[in-house]
Amino acid sequence: MAGEKSERLYAPDMAVGFYRGALGAAARVPGLAGEEARVRARVGENQRLMGRLDEAAETYRAAMAAAERAGDERTLADSCVALGNILIHKPDYEGARSLSEKALGMFARLRDDAGTYSAMTNLGFIHYYKGEHAEALELYSRQLELAGRMGDRLREGKTLSDIGGIYWEKGEYGKAMENNLR
């Protein structure tokens, strides 16, 4: 698809145009209505990459509505996480928490560890930004265990970095450095 090729070339503005064209075509072709949610989610991701967060938020809301209509729980959960991440930076912590917890439940039903990890990332950021360091550390510990079960060294490293950031914020520099060297 031209939108995906544009993404690989890091041309998000071009990708948005192609995806919007695909939305119009899908509406006219029987059997493609279920693709609307996934295409809208791709548009939202590209808008987010360009820093157009308000547009991306609206697009993710439209993707969520389309996913609900189509019964596409995976796209709904992914869009909840993506919109939640945008809301964290607004900051609308309660809105972000609600969406991330909703996604966490869906990912659990889907047995999607990568999705669970992403929803947990949002929740960890919320705790961190609110200064709830104990809650963030507890969540990151669970997230680190999940990454280990997944065998995902990149996610383990990211989580260790997040944990180290909390220790640094708390002034526990030795723990931060020790954690980041793990």
Explain what you see:
- With 182 residues, the protein is mainly alpha-helical.
- It is built from 10 helices and no strands.
- Helix 2 runs antiparallel to helix 3 (36-49) and helix 4 (53-70) packs antiparallel against helix 5 (73-88).
- The longest helix is centred in the middle third of the chain and has 18 residues, at 53-70.
Biggest beta sheet summary: none
Helix content: over 70%
Instruction: Kindly provide the radius of gyration, computed on alpha-carbon positions and rounded to a whole number of angstroms.
Output: 18 Å
How far the N terminus sits from the C terminus, by CA atoms, comes to 41 Å
Query: What is the strand content?
Result: under 5%
As an assembly, this protein is: single chain
Average pLDDT rating: 90
Spans of at least 5 consecutive residues with low confidence: none
Principal-axes geometry comes out as elongated
The count of strands amounts to: 0
Structural class: mainly alpha
Number of helices: 10
The topology string of helices and strands comes to HHHHHHHHHH
